[in-house]
Structure formats: C-alpha cells, structure tokens
Amino acid sequence: MSKVSRRRFLYTASATAAGAIALKGCTAGPNANQSPAASPQAGGAPAVNVGGGEGPETTTVRIGYIPIFESTPLIIAQEKGFFAKYGMTDVSVVKQAAWGALRDNLVIGSQGGGIDGAQFQMPMPYLIHEGKITTANQKIPMYVLLQTSTQGNGIAIAGKHAGKNIHLDLTRAKPYFDQLKAAGTPFTAAYTFPAVNQELWIRYWLAAGGIDPDEDVKLIAVPPPQTVANMKTGTMDGFSTGDPWPYRIVQENIGFMAALTAQMWPNHPEEYFGMRADWADQHPKATKALLKGIMEAQQWCDQPENRTEVIQILSGRQYFNLSEEILTPPMKGEYNLGDGQPAINDIKMGPLFWKDAKGSVSYPYKSHDTWFLTENIRWGMLPPETDVKALVDTVNREDIWKEAAKEAGIPDADIPTETTRGVERFFDGITFDANDPMAYLRSLKIKKVNV
Ligand code: CA
Predict the structure, then answer these.
(1) What separation in Å is there between the alpha carbon of 151 and the centre of ligand 1?
(2) Which one of 88, 305, 407, 428 is most buried, by most CB atoms within 10 A?
(3) 79 with 319: CB under 8 angstroms?
(4) H helix or E strand, kind and range, residue 119
C-alpha cells in the first residue's frame, strides 16, 4: 500500500519535503518598504456600525498588501470609506515590498510594527500556520476569512520565444523546451513566492503540456515589481504573476502572454484575506467589520461602471504607482495576448471580485483550500501524510464570513450553503473533487508524490 493510498492525508509535523519551502528567497526584512496608505478620503459613508450590535473592540488594524489586482478590494474598502462605515475608522492598508516581507511583518504583528492581516496567495496562511515558511519554523495560528478575487493572473513569455507555440496548450512546444534543455539553457521562469499560487499555476501549465517543472525547466522566485525588469534584461524567459504585471510585457513590447489563468481554470480561486488568529479571536466584532467593509468594496468593484474609478485609485503613488493606461486593459478584461493569438475583450476574463460564473467570489470555499494544499502535496511541498481536512477545518473560517455577510444584510442568494463549489475542471480535462483529492492526484501524469 502506498503511503498515501489511505485516501486520507494525515498531517505530521515531520516535514521533510516541506522543509524545502522554508525559503529566504524573496524576503526583505520586516518593515522593508512598508508605506502606509493615505488616510481614507473624505466623503465615505458615516462611521456607523452597520449590523452586529455594539461597535468593534478596536478601530485600529494594520493590513498588508502587494500591488497587484488581488489587493483591490482592500484598497477600495479603505479609499471609499467602507471600513469606516462599519466602525473601523483607523485601518492602515500597508504596501509590502515582497511576499517574504509581508510574511515577516505578519509574524511580528502590529505590536512589533508589522501587520495583523493581509492579502495572501494560497496556501500561504496554512504554511505560516504550520510554520513551514517562517523563521525557525515558528507557527503563527492563522485564519483564512475571505477570497479577494478570482482570475486576473497570467503567464508572460519573453519575445525571443515567439513563434514556438508557447501558448495555453504546450504540447506542441515540448520539443522546443527539450531543445533548450539539451543546449544547457533550460527555459527559466519565475514565480513570486514559493509553493503558492503563481508557482502552482506555472507548474500546472507546464505539466499539462508534458513538461516536468522539476526536470525540464528552471523555476525561480522573483517579486512582482522585478519581473518586468528581469524580462527586459533577458535573465528570465517567462513568469507567472498577478495583473497588471504580465500584461505590461505585451504593452512594453518585451514579449507576449502564453495564457491567462482564467483560460487554464475558468473562475479559479486566486488570493485571499487572512488574519492572525490571535487578532481575530481577540477582536471578533472588528474582524467581521473588516469583512463587511471588504465585501462592500467587492460589490462596488464588480460594477463595470466603477472600474474607471478603481483604476484611478489603484494608480495612485501610494498604491500601485502605475499609469492608468497600464492598469486599464487587464482590469477590464482586455488582453492582447500577442504571438498570433486571438485578442480577448471580456470583463469576465479579467479579475472578478464579488461574483463570477460559478457563484460567490468572496466566499472562502473549503474545497479551494483543499485544492491548494493537495497541489502542495503533488509537488512535494507538503508531506503526503498531511491531514488536509483537519487543517482546512482549523484555518478556514467560512463561518465568520457567513456571520459577517448576514449581519451586513447580504441576500441569502449570495451566501453559499455548501462548503464545496463542486467538481472543478481544468483546461486539460483534469477534474478535482475536494471529496476525493486522491483521485485527482492519481489522474495527474507529472507529479512528485508517489500515488
Ligand atoms: Ca495572484
């Protein structure tokens, strides 16, 4: 019987493979380049606590973000006064220099000058919770509370590889990848932080095309703002990151986009809002007030007529510090992929914040957390014995999301009643059912886990 044929991932603290992800790769020190956002603009709604009885336990909290579209609801909640509307009048939305810095600031907490919660790639909160990516394997109990957005990511390729069939389906490009490897110059691609979304997207895409991400290419970690620079200097052949960075490659004529993640997995889960469990436990009302503010921002962001203002706010110097011209096409789902591929012009192919074709964006489905953890097991980033279900039941707090949504008066139709979104289907025909992750792992040809 193989180690994982028990159909159950029993978590064990003896993390062998997982030790490999305790990386210092793209870390800056704590507080590095943290730049507090400006105070909320005047004109927000009055500071009343809407729903939930008396006011929050505190009005002060520090939330970290990375300047990619996934952070949009956090920034909009601040700028449009939605946090203040629910009584959170002293929220700091703090830019982080890199994912490593975000993690380090979360570990020290606001009392140490860091942050209490943040935007996260998945399963980053789980890896922090389990001490897999923290210094000295320190475990910081975490909660996953809300999904900030679906889709809105892509894989960008350097222009020198145009005409080699490096598109969504890589099977026809396999000989070219083999040729690069044989020449001693393997295709080198970057993601933004190990073992989470961007590495998982590029690995999925490569493996679906028959290219082994551990044998046939070289994968490295590079923070999002450095991706464009590295592509220009030719030290990188491709990268996987959040909008607007991949599309900048097309706009600046440096390369093209091989695929949108929305093509790889339509309406796929992307990034989340999570908090230190100690902060949320000490401030349950404030936690729900934050969620209500973010939910209201998500609904506001998804109104197409508000996207122009979203772009104006994000482009600000204290936020993305990028021109509106750069932000507009990907925020509106307008992608000129390049390299002879048909252009995409559909807001539903870009980042979505409140609803998508599968239902709620904001709701943190346990089935999605299960996929991210299963994918970590697939690539040897978590031990196969990991008890995924127990871990998800501890870290995922969909119950808090539901309470906040009900208190905020969200219609019942927009509050999921199931903890799974159902069977998920990828572009290569593979399916994932959170009730049977082993069947998914068995169905994959390229993987590091022995199932
Ligand atoms: Ca992302």
Answers:
(1) 8
(2) 88
(3) no
(4) strand 117-120
Quick: pLDDT tens for 194-236: 999 999 999 999 999 999 999 999 999 987 668 888 888 888 9
Q: Are 15 and 384 in contact (CB under 8 A)?
A: no
Distance in angstroms (rounded) separating the CA atoms of residues 9 and 398: 21
C-alpha dist (Å) from residue 281 to 38, 40, 90:
28, 26, 19
54 CA from centroid of ligand 1 (Å): 36
Contacts of 318 (CB under 8 A, 6+ apart): 35, 37, 38, 95
Confirm if 106 and 114 have CB atoms less than 8 A apart: yes
CB neighbour list of residue 239: distance below 8 Å, 6 or more residues apart: 155, 156, 189, 190, 191, 198, 202, 222, 227, 230, 231, 245, 246
Burial of 7 (0-12, 13-18, 19+ CB in 10 A): exposed
Give the per-residue pLDDT at 223: 75
**Beta-sheet pairing, 60-65 with 117-120:** parallel
User: How far, in Å, from the CA of 1 to the mean position of ligand 1?
Assistant: 37
User: What pLDDT score was predicted for residue 222?
Assistant: 86
Dihedral sign (CA 308, 80, 296, 196): positive
Place of tokens 């606001």: 110
> In the chain, which stretches have pLDDT less than 50?
1-33, 37-49
Determine how β-strand 359-360 pairs with β-strand 431-432. Answer: unpaired
Q: What are phi and psi of 275, to 5 degrees?
A: -140, 160
In whole angstroms, what is the distance from residue 152 CA to residue 260 CA?
Answer: 7
The answer to whether 143 and 277 are in contact (CB under 8 A) is yes
Q: Ligand 1 centroid vs 50 CA: distance in angstroms?
A: 31
How far is the C-alpha of 32 from the C-alpha of 437, rounded, in Å? 38
- Residue 61: CA atoms inside 13 Å, Cβ hemisphere, count? 33
Q: How far is the CA of 64 from the centre of ligand 1 (A)?
A: 15
Alpha carbon of 242 to ligand 1 centroid (Å): 4
CA of 430 to the centre of ligand 1 (A): 22
Q: Using alpha carbons, select from 29, 65, 22 the residue that is nearest to residue 271.
A: 65
For 178, other C-beta atoms within 10 Å of its C-beta total 15
Distance of CA 176 to the CA centre of its chain: 30
What's the CA gap between 53 and 140, in Å, rounded?
30
